[in-house]
Amino acid sequence: MAVEFFLKFKKSQEVQRAMAKVPDKAEKAVNNVLRTTGINTAIQAITGFIPVSDRNKRHAKTSNPLKGDLMNLGFKVYPRGGAASNKNSFGYLVFPNDGIGPHNYIAQEFFERGGEQASTRIFNDLMTALAEAAEL
Q1: Distances (CA, A) of 74 to 33, 68, 89, 95, 100
Q2: Residue 70 belongs to what H/E stretch?
Q3: CB-based contact 92:84 (threshold 8 Å)
């Protein structure tokens, strides 16, 4: 599953302007925010949109189904485990927008909806960190 989510153009310009004010501290400040709160905020927001069925079984929403990797000035969130044939994996997280499988006939789009929800908080945290870096 590869869903890419970026800040809206206007917000990315604001971050770029704030980073230009402190070029020597900006990269470290942004990476620190993304490492400490950004990934967790995105994972919590995405997990909040994962559906729970009525079936009596373990569900991804309550099982820590996602993990994230930090990159320079960004991060990636993806499902744990991979294919449905792997133990402790949730196959329906791999292609949620394809509507495949016996119980998933429509696109879920919880990665997109969660990313959209998390972006505001992450943006605010980034701007706060860059403002603090400018004051130092």
Answers
A1: 10, 10, 25, 22, 30
A2: strand 66-71
A3: yes
d(CA 35, CA 12): 18
10-residue mean pLDDT series, the chain (136 residues): 69 93 94 95 91 76 85 88 65 66 69 90 96 90
Q: Which amino acid, one-letter code, is at 133?
A: A
The alpha helices in 1-103, defined as continuous H runs, are 9-21, 26-33, 39-48
CA atoms of 69 and 11, how far apart (whole Å) = 23
Its pTM stands at 0.81
And the tokens for 50?
Answer: 């994962």
- The residue extents of the domains of the chain are 26-51+58-135
Q: How buried is 9 (Cβ within 10 angstroms: 0-12 exposed, 13-18 middle, 19+ buried)?
A: exposed
Burial of 87 (C-beta count, 10 Å sphere; 0-12/13-18/19+):
exposed
